[in-house]
Amino acid sequence: MLVTSKEMVYHARAGKYAIGCFNTSDLEITKAIIAAAEAQKAPVIISTSPKAIEYAGHEVLAGIIKEEATKSKVPVALHLDHGLTLALVEDCLKLGYTSIMFDGSGSDLEHNEILTRQAVEMAHAKKVPCEGELGFLGKAGQNPSKLTNPDDVIGFVQKTGVDFLAVSIGSEHGHGENEALDIKLLKKINSQTGIPLVLHGASGVPDKDIKEAIKLGIAKVNIDTDIRHTFVRGLRDFLDKNPKEKDPREILTKVMNEIQKYVEGRIKLFGSNNRV
Ligand code: 13P
After folding, report:
1. What are 119-151's pLDDT values in tens digits?
2. Is 108 an annotated catalytic residue?
3. Which of 154, 211, 233, 252 sits at a 20 to 30 Å CA gap from 25?
4. How would DSSP label each residue in 102-138?
5. Residue 173 near ligand 1, beta carbon < 6 Å
6. Cβ of 68 less than 6 Å from ligand 1
7. Beta carbon of 174 within 6 Å of any ligand 1 atom
8. 246 C-alpha to center of ligand 1: Å?
9. Is the CB of 217 under 6 A from ligand 1?
10. Are the C-beta atoms of 219 and 196 separated by less than 8 Å?
């Protein structure tokens, strides 16, 4: 069923496990994520970045996810990942998104707070939860992350009214050279607020750090790069072994199986299996 992300993430925060937030840009990845969540009896968040929205078309992508979510046996939330403008937040709410992230982390703190507050008000008017980002999550090899300043946490949470807080504690989007998490920093952040914290850039972060972070308030873990890599690796392997296969449905079914296996493994690591 299609639900908002609020209850599942707050439940995870209280139970010291995390909900997997997996990025999709097409039918195949969406089906594989939901199949994995059903196999593991896990609530799940399906996330669409601005790039995925541009690739697939917003109505098409949202339509696929809403349809698959509605049919699903497990709770599924449809999430906007790194919404950079209020106009995009508005579009998503009109299309029936059940979870929003507004990312004002490219602005200074004051502007981040003002814009995030507006996004929160828009989302809450539709009873949809909203995540904000404090600090900056960079992209491996392109722009470095800027760690979250724990002294900014209380003010940001109070002024914006965010439901979940994305923190920058050592990870990057993509595969960085060293994505060990700053657990001491996370402890400080977690001592400032009781709201669920979000780990972005989880591809490339050591499993033991992810587990440690989940004990310290991380209740939503975002994965994108490793899903896309699993897709491409699965496609290459299958075509190398079966060069005569001509039916895309046969090929993509094998790729979906690989993605499903990967997502099931992450769900078990996050401890969100057997929660439905
Ligand atoms: P990765 O691409 O490193 O998995 O990060 C995904 C993410 O944080 C999406 O918001």
Report:
1. 999 999 999 999 999 999 999 999 999 999 999
2. no
3. 211
4. E--TTS-HHHHHHHHHHHHHHHHHTT--EEEEESB--
5. yes
6. no
7. yes
8. 33
9. no
10. yes
Q: Please state whether the predicted TM-score (pTM) of the whole model is above 0.90.
A: yes
Which atom of ligand 1 is the closest one to the Cα of 172? 3
Report which protein residue has its CA nearest ligand 1's atom 5.
201
Amino acid symbol at 219: A
Cα separation, 242 vs 230, in Å, equals 18
| Ligand 1 atom with the shortest distance to the CA of 140 | 3
Question: What pLDDT does residue 49 have?
Answer: 98
Compute the C-alpha angle 11/13/19, nearest 5°. Answer: 75
Say if residues 113 and 85 touch (Cβ distance below 8 Å): no
DSSP character for 181?
-
Structure confidence by residue, pLDDT tens digits, 162-206: 999 999 999 999 998 889 999 999 999 999 999 999 999 999 999
Nearest residue to 100 via CA among 83, 117, 87? 83
Q: b or e along 60-84 (b: 16 or more beta carbons within 10 Å of the residue's beta carbon)?
A: ebbebbbebbeebebbbbbbbbbbe
CB 5 within 8 A of CB 99: yes
Choosing from 81, 163, 182, 209, the catalytic residue is: 81
| Closest CA to ligand 1's atom 1 | 201
The label of the residue with tokens 């979510």 reads: 69
Length of the chain: 276
Strands 19-23 and 44-48: parallel
